[in-house]
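>> received
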Amino acid sequence: MAKTVGKTRTPTKRTPPAPSRGGKSSPSTATTAASPPPAFDPPPLSRSLLVRFGIAVLLAVVAYFIGRADNPEAGNLNAEPFEVVALPGKGMGLVATRDIRQGERLIREEPLFVVPKSVDENPSALIMRLLQNVPPAGQAAFWNLSYVNLAQGDRDRARVALAIFETNAVAAGDGGVGIFPGMARLNHGCAGAFNAVYTWRERERALFVHALKDVKKGEELLTTYTDTKRTRSERRNFLSTQYGFECTCAVCSLAEDASKASDARLTAIAQYYRHFATWGDRAIEGAEAIGTINKIWELEEAEGYYSERGRLAADAAWIAAAHSDAGAVRLWALLAMKWYGIELGADSDLVGEVQAVAETPESHSAWGTRERMASPFPSFYSALPLVALPRMASSSSDVVILGLGVVLAAVYLFRDQIFAPSKPKVAPLPSRTANGGGNPRDFITRMKEGKKRIVIFYGSQTGTAEEYAIRLAKEAKTKFGLASLVCDPEEYDFENLDQLPEDCAVFFVMATYGEGEPTDNAVQLMQNLTDESFEFSNGEHKLEGLKYVVFALGNKTYEHYNLIGRQVDQHLTSMGGIRIGERGEGDDDKSMEEDYLEWKDGMWEAFATAMGVEEGQGGDSADFAVSELASHPAEKVYLGELSARALTKTKGIHDAKNPYPAPLAACRELFQSTTDRNCVHIELNTEGSGITYQHGDHVGVWPSNPDLEVDRLLCALGLWEKKDNVIGIESLDPALAKVPFPRSDHFAPSPEAEEAMKTLNQNKEEYHNVVANGCIKLGEVLQLVAGNDLVAPPTPENTTAWPIPFDIIVSAIPRLQPRYYSISSSPKIHPTSIHVTCVVLKYESVESTKAPPRWVFGVGSNFLLNLKFAALGESQPLVASGPVPSYAIDGPRGAYKNETIYKAPIHVRRSTFRLPTNPKSPVIMIGPGTGVAPFRGFVQERVALARRSIEKNGPDALADWGQISLFYGCRKSTEDFLYKEEWPEYDAELKGKFKLHCAFSREPPYKPDGSKIYVQDLLWEDRAHVADAIINGKGYIYICGDAKSMSKSVEEVLARILGEAKGGSGEVEGAAEVKLLKERSRLMLDVWS
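>> returned
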C-alpha cells in the first residue's frame, strides 16, 4: 500500500472552517453605511500609516524567518545535510551530517516513474515496463529499496518489484503514485518523534522534504507513515499490518506512564479537531472554535507535535474572518504564513495567499459571513490570552511574530479609538449569514428546503458547462415540472452525496481542461470521487443506487478528450451508482450544440422512466421579473461592471470573480507588415494589485461586446429607443437565473421568419452550414431569418424587430466570457507587468445559400487591438465590405480610462506549463506564430537565472547548463517574425545555451519538392540533437499553438525520432516513448483549436 496518510501536503480546495485557495471573493456583496463627517479627521499619516508600517515590518520579519529557514544555501551550508547509513534494526536511514534548521529544504526529488491510480494491465508487468525507461542509476536505487508483504524466499523479479512499489510509493499529485528513492530512505516516527515532512508540488512535478524541527548533527531524519493522532497500540497495529514493523520511535518507546500521558494528549487533540470542525455546521460559536484551536496548539506543544500547524492557523484565520475580527485574522494569518513556510517552503503558493490575508483581513473570502462578535477585543483575547502566547511559540521566531502580532492587533482593533474622535466614524455592519443559515455547503438540506428533486453540478472553466447545466435545469422544469439545484461544486461538500433521496437524481456536467485535468472548480469533487480512502456519510466509498446523469464537454483535437466526464461516470459506476441514459459527450471542435441536441432527447426518455415522471407536467414560465424604473440612484445602476466589488468600489482579492483593471504600460504592433494582419504586444501593469504570476500561466482578458453587435441586437429586439432606460431585474428561480435557452420561433415577426427559425432549430446540416460555419451571432441570426441585410450597419429602419419579452431576452443571453492568452513574460524580469502576445482574428466568412460572405472579427483580439489604437492615438483601419468593430473601451463609468491611460480587466489562471527547475536539463520548445508567447517567458526566466548565477559564480557559471532550443515558424522573416530583435539579446546573455531554429513557410529555402517548410520539418532535420537531449539528457519538450494540425504533426515527428533512436518504429516504440514522456510531464502542451 502506498504511503499517503498522515503527512503534510499542499492542500487544494478547502472546506470551512479552512481557508479557501487564494482568498476567493465572497459571493455576498459588501455594503457600507453612510455616516456624517467627524469634527476632526486626522491626516492620513496619523490614521493608517502607522498600522500599515507595522504590518509591513511584521510581514518582513515573518518573511525573514521563512526565507532563512528554507534557503538551503544560507550560511554556506552543504546542499545535502544528511547521509544514508545502516541503522540497527531499521535497515537504511538518513542521518544529519550537520545541524539543520527548522524549515530548511532537505530534498527536492522527481519520481523515477509514476503509476496512474487506475491501470488496466497487470501491476507487476506495468512496473517492470516502466522500470525499463529509468536510467541505470535509478534502477539500481529502486532495487535497493526495502519491501514487505512478500513470501520469504520469493525472488521472482516482477513480484519483488511490486512489493518494493507497494512498500515505498507515495502520492504524486492527482496523476497517481510514484517512487522517490531518496525520500523512501526516511524512516517512520510518531507524533513528536518525526522531524521532517514532505509535500508534492504539481507545477514542478516534484516532491519536497522540509525539516519540521531543528535537527542536531547525528540525529536521524524521520517522517510519518500514518495519522499519529492515535494511541500507541493503534499506531503499532497499523504499522505492523501495512509495513511489517513494530515502531520503536521515541514516542512509542516511552515508559508506561509517559506513554499513557502521550496517548491522552493525542486522543484529546483528535477530539478537539473534530469539535472545532463543527463550527462549519454552526454547532459552536466562533470564540469557542478558536478557543478549541488554542487548546490543540497547547497540547501539540506539550507533545512536540508540529505537523499541519499552517493549516490549523489558517483554519483559525478563516473563523475569525467569518466573524469580522480583523485582529485575530491578522495574527493567525501570520502564524499560518510562518508555519506554511516551514512545512511547505517559503515559495509555496499558500504562503503568498495567507500573506495577502494578513495584509488585508477584509479580503478573506469568509469575511462577514457570520455574525460579528459582540466585542472584538475580548473575543480575541479570551480565545487567545496573552499568558498562552509563550506556550504557543515553538521557537524564538514564534515569540517575535506573536508579540508583534498582539501589539499590531490591538492597534488595529482600536484604531478608531486611538486615532479618531470619540464618535464612531462608521456605523456597525449588519449581521450576515451565508445562504440564509444552516451549513451553506450542505446541498442535501438546500434540496429539501427548496423541494428540488435534481441537483446539477458543473465543472466549468469558461462558463460553457455552467450554461448547459442551467439549460438542463430549465428543460427539467418545462418538461416534467421538476425543480433543480444548480451548483458550483467548489461551494459544496460531498460527504453526504450518499444521502441523496431515492426519488432524486444528480447530474454532472463536466468539462475537461488542459491535458485531461478537471476545471479549477471541480478539483475537490474529482479528488473525492477518485480517492478510495474518502468516506461518505455511510463510512464507505460507496454510492449504492445513486441515480446520475453525465454530460461531458471537451475537444477531440486534445488527446484526453472528455476524460473528466468519463472518469466521473467510471467512478460513480464502480461505487454502485446507476447511470440514467447514455453518457453525453460534446465536441467543441465541431459543434457542442449539435452533440447536446442529439443526446438530450434519449436521456430525457430514460430519465422519465427511471424517475417515474411523465413529460408534459411542466410548462413555460419566466425566470425573471423585469420592470422599467422611473428613477433609481445613478451610482447603483449596473453598467457592465464585472463584479459586485467593482460596482461598490470595495477592495478584495482579484480573481476570475473580481477582475483587476490593469493599466496598459506599453503596447506595440509586432508584425512588420500590417496590410491585412495584426499582432499586438500588450504590457499590463499589475503593481499594487496583489496579482502574481509564474512563467507559463495564462491571463484572462475580459472584453466587452463590440458596439456594432450591441446596436444590432438592440435593433433586432426593437429596443433601440429604450437603450438608455433603467430596468430592474428580479430572479424568480435562482437555479435558472443565468442562461436558460428559450425558443425564439414563438416570437417570430412573420410566418417566413418563423419557418426559417424552425429550419435552423430542426435541421442539423442547415444549422451547421449557416450558423456554425458562418460564425453568426444572435443578432445576425435574427436579422438573417427576417430577411435583413447583414453587411450594412444595423439601424431601426433596416432591421426587423422581434417582439420577444425582455425577461426572455435576459434569460437567453449568457455572460461574455474572458479570453485566455499565454503570458509572454517572466516575473523574474517583469514582476509587476504581464505581457500578452495576441494575433488579431479577422477573416472573411464562407458564403452560404442564406448569407453572403462578410468579415468576422474575434471579440477578444479586436478588443485588445482597439486598446492599442486608443493608447497610441492611432486610427482604426477600414475593411472593404463593411464596418469594423469598435468597443466602449473606457469601461463602465470610465473605470477603464484614467486621463490618457487605458485599462483592461484581467485575472490570472494558474498553469502547470513550467520549465524544469534544474537548468542542466535540456529544453526543447516548439511554438510557431503566437505559440511562441509562453516561450518568450521561458527564455526570460532562464536569462534571469543566468544573471544571478553569473553574478554569484562567475562567467563560467553556465558551463554545465543544458541547451534551450526554440523551434519557431512564421510566414516571412520580414513580415511576421515575432520579437525578432530580442532573441539575439537572450542568446548573448545565455552564453550560447540558447538556440533558435526558424521555419519561414513563404520564403526560400523550400523543400526539394517545392513545398513549404514548417517547424516539424526543422525538428526532423535536427533529430540527432533532439533524440540525444530527450533520451540521454533527460530533456523536456514543450509544444504551444494549434492543436488541430501543428501539435499533432510535431508529436508524430517526435515519435519518429524516438522510435528511430530506439531502433524501432515511430508507430510502436516511438509512440510509447511519447506517451511515457507525457506521463512523466516531460512532454507538455499548451494548445488550442
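>> The longest strand covers residues 660-669.
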